[in-house]
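Now for a typical sample entry:
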Amino acid sequence: MNYRQCARATEWPLAGSALTFLAIYTWTVLSQPTGTGARVAEYAILAIWAMFGIDYLVRLALADQRARWFVRHLHELAIVALPMLRPLRLLRRLTLVSLLQRSIGGALRGRVVTYAVAGTAVLVFVASLAMFDAERAAPAGSIKTFPDALWWATATVTTVGYGDYSPTTATGRFIAVGLMVAGIALLGVVTATLASWLVQKVAEQDDANQAATQQQVAELTSQIAALRTELALRPDRRCSAVSSAPDGTA
């Protein structure tokens, strides 16, 4: 089995594992299970982690240039190392890409917009869960409910930062830094995509105007050529009319 066959074979199982992890992680944070339920959730998360780790090592071994593959796939290592990033694996299976490509225009632009929007939504939800889990037991913490954490994550990722909720633990602040970076990246992607779309529309309008101008110039050129031909023939017609008169006069 080569690298491409391995990637195709594991794509759907890993996407399903990421969705399962997101469901288990959400359930454990919001309900805080104990006893058998907690142990089952822990074993399931360990199994999913092992699946992601084995997939990463296998694809690294099958890569033609391992050092280059490692550098270009650091996000894959982050997905294996950081549990909260595993749901981002779902972005690779989004069927919305083709729709956005048709409505927005351009395969690359549609893919970038899809990843930015979907990735931000997943990050906001997972960061809310992680922040709620880290801050709810902090004595001086202000984030005590999941809606508070969701509000904080939304304000942070949009770089608004009202300041009504803020993390107090080291884990919470680490999550906040990651979400701030994601928010800045989101603004950059949205701005760049909008600018690219505007430049494309202006270029298309310029091309249309140039085509119309060229067509008008071609029509005027043909009309001028026809007038010149007609003017060139008129003296010959007059001379032939004079020579054909009986008295030699016009």
Observations:
- The CA atoms of residues 65 and 71 lie 10 Å apart.
- The chain has a mean pLDDT of 78.
- The first helix runs from residue 3 to 31.
